[in-house]
Design brief:
Layout lengths: L4 E8 L4 E5 L3 E7 L1 H4 L13 E5 L6 E6 L5 E5 L7 E6 L3 E7 L6 H13 L3 E7 L7 H12 L5 E3 L8 H5 L7 E5 L6 H9 L24 E4 L5 E4 L12 H7 L1 H8 L15 H8 L4 H16 L2 H22 L10
Parallel strand pairs: 3-5, 8-9, 8-11, 9-10, 11-13
Antiparallel strand pairs: 1-2, 1-4, 2-3, 4-5, 6-7, 12-13
Helix pairs in contact: 2-3, 2-6, 6-7
The protein binds guanosine-5'-triphosphate and magnesium ion.
The site of magnesium ion has 6 residues, from helix 5.
Length: about 325
């Protein structure tokens, strides 16, 4: 193995990563364990990441470092040291896909919008399967309601071709677009339609409840003929909120601006006098279900702030230091006691 070179992660399998570099084309690599598994602050790479690697012409190469990311989002992962698992990195735009049937769910859309907004990249809502909807405007209005004014919303169908030309305007050379949405909404079908060939596997869905079958099982980056890259993701049951305060503020700007009218800055909206939130709930200006949704997502987001993570990491490091000393038979502190 020679000097460190850089490549992009184009697919993530269990413990193997498919990489692509100008010099070596497509090849597989694993994480260098002395770098990633031994008390390091190294980020585990994900699809879209740029990584440094040591090339091995006879087998899997080794990933030695994850380069800083310009954008990323993650989901909660109780088993990793950082308590998060990056889902995608270094994208320029997020397409939030939701289908025009009974799978359409404004609350899920709020969650996806919050995640997209927190990543600080551009985003658009794509309503898929427009051919199945008797009244597509109903879904467009609902998506508009969920997203507020400045979010582009497109209704498309890969069956009739509706809306695909507008989507193609976004697919520019060098641009990386990540597709997010539940299983079965048609992410991979749209990738294939844009690529003009069947790159990704697509499968039927159970028509009785329109739930998907998790056809795509790993994150995969597809490079189109013009050099644009699409990151197709498996439908995620649970896309947790991590570092999502900014996204939350935007998705619930109505609640946030009401809260600013409360008499006390640190109002908890419980029994405090002059609480604008409680007044709005009483008058019906703010619905209880919207407030409940906001409180639930806020609680989740608060658990995964940088401060929260830093404290958890410190605790974790202290525990592993103690356990190493203990296992080493020393069991003593620095003073030798
Ligand atoms: N009627 C109709 N069906 C569509 C359309 N787009 C996709 N489908 C169907 O929806 C089903 C699921 O499509 P996929 O592309 O596999 O969905 P996915 O979002 O990639 O799902 P996962 O990989 O499981 O996350 C397939 O049977 C597609 O043929 C569309 O525009 N109209
Ligand atoms: Mg898929």
């Amino acid at each position: 193995m020679g000097e460190s070179l850089s490549a992009r992660v184009i697919a993530v399998h269990r413990e193997r990563f498919a990489l692509q570099s100008d010099i070596h084309g497509e090849f597989y690599a694993q994480l260098k364990s002395s770098v990633f598994y031994q008390e390091s602050d190294e980020f585990f790479p994900t699809a879209g990441d740029l990584v440094e690697y040591l090339y091995n012409p006879c087998g899997d190469s080794l990933i030695t470092h994850t380069l800083p990311r310009k954008s990323y989002f993650a989901r909660y992962d109780a088993f990793s040291a950082r308590k998060e698992q990056a889902v995608a990195a270094n994208f320029d735009m997020v397409f939030l896909l939701t289908s025009a049937n009974h799978d359409f769910n404004p609350k899920r859309l709020h969650r996806y919008l919050t995640v997209a907004r927190s990543s600080h990249s551009a985003y658009a809502i794509i309503i898929t399967k427009a051919d199945l909807a008797e009244n597509i405007d109903y879904y467009i209005d609902k998506a508009q309601e969920a997203s507020g004014e400045n979010c582009p919303i497109y209704a498309i169908s890969t069956v009739t071709g509706q809306g695909l030309d507008i989507i193609r305007n976004y697919i520019l050379p060098e641009r990386v677009i990540v597709f997010l949405g539940s299983s079965g909404v048609g992410k991979s079908t749209l990738v294939n339609a844009l690529a003009g060939k069947n790159i990704m596997d697509v499968n039927g869905i159970r028509e009785d409840d329109s739930k998907g079958r998790h056809t795509t099982t790993h994150r995969q980056m597809v490079t189109l003929d013009n050099g644009a890259m699409i990151l197709d993701t498996p439908g995620m049951r649970e896309l947790g909120l991590i570092d999502a305060e900014d996204g939350l503020k935007e998705t619930f700007s109505d609640v946030e601006s009401l809260a600013r009218e409360c008499r006390f800055v640190n109002c908890k909206h419980q029994n405090e006098p002059g609480c604008a939130i409680r007044a709005a709930l009483q008058s019906g200006a703010l619905s209880h279900s919207r407030m409940d949704e906001y409180l639930m997502l806020q609680k989740e987001a608060m658990r995964h702030t940088p401060q929260g993570r830093e404290e958890r990491n410190k605790r974790q490091k202290a525990i592993s230091k103690f356990s190493r000393q203990f296992k080493g038979g020393k069991g003593k502190d620095e003073r030798g006691f």
